[in-house]
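User: Good morning. I'm curious how heme C would be positioned relative to this chain. Could you predict the structure with it bound?
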Amino acid sequence: MRRAWIVGAVVVVGLGAVIATITMAPKQDTDTEAGLPYWAYPVATHKWPKPDPNETATIPGSDKTLTIREVNNGFGPPDWFPDDHPPMPDIVAHGRKPDVMACGYCHLPNGHGRPENAALAGLPAAYIVEQVREMREGARHSSTAKMGSINAMMRIAKASNDEEIRAAAEYFSGLKMTKWIRVVETDMAPKTDINTHNMLQMVPGDQEPIGDRILEVPEDIERTELRDSHLGFIAYVPKGSIEKGRMLVKSGAGAYPCAACHGPTYHGNGEVPPLAGRSPSYIVRQLTDFKRGTRNGANAAMMRPEVAKMSEDDMLNIAAYLSSLDP
Ligand code: HEC
Ligand code: HEC
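Assistant: Good morning! Here's the predicted structure, ligand included:
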């Protein structure tokens, strides 16, 4: 009798372990500091080969041919589609040497940004000015000092002046955010690796359980490396996360409903920023930073009760839902 009980227990525990290994995400090779979700704050563990700067490149739909050196010029980034947007102010197109890299280099000329930075298109101009001021003064910083992309933004904020940021803010604020992220609910996702731009990218061919992660990867890594502003990202999210996120956002995750301040469709309201269709990795970083108090500018106080009881899973679900909405 007792033996049967033990055998039964062993079988149950064994089965549990098998199920756990099936549903749990495999361990990723990452240098992200412990306690932070690595997929929102990715840090590479190994060097990646550098492309030949003299090679030339083209992308579909643009009549330009550029060298890789031109593509990677932080003080004159590629503008493959100049007809997509109004003329860029000098600070967006060229920045100011030696310390203020062109805003368009990371945030792209159309302001749609990438997972390791942020989308600026359609943000309220006054909000942009305020955020950069808070980064300059230290009221807004990240939960980690390990992401090179964020450290670069903080240096730029410190080196830039009000006039430059006002010009950039007017420009990005006037751009329209369009659908840039394709959210896919799944149990199995492509295997990913972290590249030296603090970005996840797919490892071709291999699949693994998604577990409790959002994997935001370029639709086509080669085109993203060329800074193509016509092709965005796929966000693989766990099955059921969008609906869970919708409920949390509607109820307010233990505080006020998000719509109370971010607008009925989460497209922003006055100086409160829009959330719909924005990068889920960026959203999780911000919720984490509000919760840890490293994002602590003048208006961050309004977000503090919202994140007080929010778990990492809640953040994941909220981000899956918000990024799935049309911007
Ligand atoms: C080297 C890359 C890089 C460049 C160049 C850059 N940024 Fe950023 N920016 C970032 C990153 C990374 C973040 C996201 C920080 C985070 O995740 O916490 C960011 C975030 C921002 C935000 C916050 C957006 C939000 O929704 O709150 C603003 C505003 C911003 N940048 C403005 C600018 C302006 C203006 C310029 C040009 C003067 C600029 N950035 C140049 C990397 C860059
Ligand atoms: C009481 C008003 C209020 C409510 C309710 C509120 N927010 Fe916010 N939220 C703000 C303000 C104001 C900011 C800008 C904070 C700053 O300036 O640092 C913000 C910023 C954010 C940001 C960062 C956006 C960016 O571009 O960097 C995210 C993400 C966010 N809120 C998510 C949420 C979610 C999710 C909820 C619901 C669970 C929510 N907010 C509820 C007022 C609110």
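Residues 91, 100-101, 103, 105-107, 116-118, 120, 123, 128, 131-132, 142, 149-150, 152-153, 156, 160, 165, 168, 273, 282, 285 surround heme C (ligand 1) (CB under 6 Å). Residues 16-22 have pLDDT under 50 and may be disordered.
Let me know if you'd like a different ligand tried.
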